[in-house]
């Protein structure tokens, strides 16, 4: 008689947009108070059940190409754990911190290339783009070497979201981000968010969607299952909403790791290329990078074998 074995699939939630310095995207508050706000958001995310966050700094593309990452990962000793553990074996007590750069791509940047061979860009874990015009959206979907395309959902969209354009990004493994933070603070922003997010989901057929907080302060952050419920207002069912804050952010991290280890789509050929110790855990994203729509649809189920 063989003993039965139960494999518990641990669902892991991520918020890939914690502003850094928090509450200071336009340079109004002091660095110390902003860092304190980021600290509070990180602590709140962990308490609410998130397993990792990305500190996100926003700047124009021209500036980003000449400025290395200066984000300081917050060390809170017993509460935050460094990125040293394989993602598959992570437990709720472990908390991962990433660095993210979001570049603002306007018409002045049309001739500037966003490529992975820029050392300043490589100093960040994740790269995302905010296109300000339809032309720049098309450029980002087809050419930019990024992991996330982020659209301001709090205002009326200044251009139409064409499925053919967005599909170019989907085919390249790039994800689209819905940020809910501003909608927490403003009724008009909330109305715009629901309409814009629904349009994005229709245009992408629900593929490659992540949902992030863009939480300027801890009060803007919502618990994972509250975010999943919010996703139903956008047109995502419960399983798709769960993927938008779990499997899909993990796939974003794997996409970023692949981008950093390759150049223009050709795999690095060096034998024995190893990840840094603080990057080893991203290998666990392999199981969601290929076919995320088919996997992890019910990550808290148990499989018996």
From TrEMBL:
InterPro entries, sorted: Pol/histidinol_Pase-like, RNase_P_p30
Name of a matching Pfam family: RNase_P_p30
Superkingdom of source: Eukaryota
Cross-referenced Gene3D superfamilies: Metal-dependent hydrolases
Major subcellular location class: nucleus
Subcellular location: Nucleus
Keyword terms of this UniProt record: tRNA processing
Gene Ontology MF terms in the entry: RNA binding
GO biological process assignments: tRNA processing
Any one of the GO CC terms: nucleolar ribonuclease P complex
Family, as annotated: Belongs to the eukaryotic/archaeal RNase P protein component 3 family.
The protein's name in its UniProt record: Uncharacterized protein
Species annotation: Synchytrium endobioticum
